[in-house]
TrEMBL record:
Record has Transmembrane as a keyword: yes
Family affiliation: Belongs to the two pore domain potassium channel (TC 1.A.1.8) family.
Major place of residence: membrane
Membrane topology, from the record: Multi-pass membrane protein
Protein name according to UniProt: TWiK family of potassium channels protein 7 isoform X2
GO molecular-function terms, A-Z: outward rectifier potassium channel activity; potassium ion leak channel activity
GO (cellular component) term, any one: plasma membrane
Single Gene Ontology BP annotation: stabilization of membrane potential
Top-rank taxon, per record: Eukaryota
Listed InterPro entries: 2pore_dom_K_chnl (IPR003280), K_chnl_dom (IPR013099)
Amino acid sequence: MCKGVKAVDWETETLMGSPPPVSKWERFIPRAALSHIGLFVALMLYTAGGGLILEGASGSGIALDIENNFPPLEEKWSILQAVFFSSTVLTTIGYGNIVPETFWGRLFCIAYALIGIPLTLTVIADLGRVFATVVSVMAKQMPTMPKWCNRLSESNPAGQRSLYAFWAVCFLFVYLSAGAGLFKMWEDDWTFYDGFYFCFITMTTIGFGDLVPKRPKYMLLCTLYILIGLALTSTIIELVRRQYARSWQQLRALSGPLADTLRRIGDAGRGVDVSALHNDLRKVLTVVTMPRLGRDGMGEKRQLEWEAAVEAVIRDITSPISPQPKPPIVQIVIYESSV
């Protein structure tokens, strides 16, 4: 009887909109996080599987440039080096120090890259969204910020986006500097500048191959650092790209009234008032220079002046040209007389 009552109660709660019972894993890990973790684990397993195959085929299908990039006969081709090579294939970095040599080795790399590169890009994009969400939440929860940052973000949305892009670039340089310090400790013959140069060339997927890590025991950490860094770099580059796009749109919006004015000059010829053109140009210049003046304490007043200037430019430019009054014609008639 009690079991029947419990079953009916559970069905009633389900019909009323109560959440279904959660599993043991969902109590500790949210369902949204499971998809991110699953993608990351799938990429790690795929990379490790490719490393195992490449490690076994290294005797016949892989050529190592030992003279330039590896100490002779000191470091053997290990599973960690194979995983590192497979990660450079999946991330499209391709240093060039390790290359497939035979037909079957090259064919395997083609098939491996065709499947793995889309998976890697998906994981990097997913990690980028996670990082962007974390950064936005941290920015909202930040207790104190400099006064000029608050004034800039509250009075000017474009300035707020520029501020986010600026802090993102600063964080990228901090991440690259941290990696440079790690590689300086791992590699005996590297300087801090060498490590920073390697991290930047790697995170931007340029991959010249002139500097490559040589210590097999640090290859796994290097792979994780590169994967996380690529997600950060792609997110930051996207933020900077959006800021450039918005700046270009604002520039085109400002150049539109000026282009219309110049077009009116070409259409109307001498009938356009030059003083009106001078006033329009002065207002456009006021609009361009106004955000720079908004850094002082009068941010709200400057913002109102900026909006008024924009409205004035649009109103004056879009208003139809009043036709110039024609000069009066005076007719003089001269009569000749014989008187």
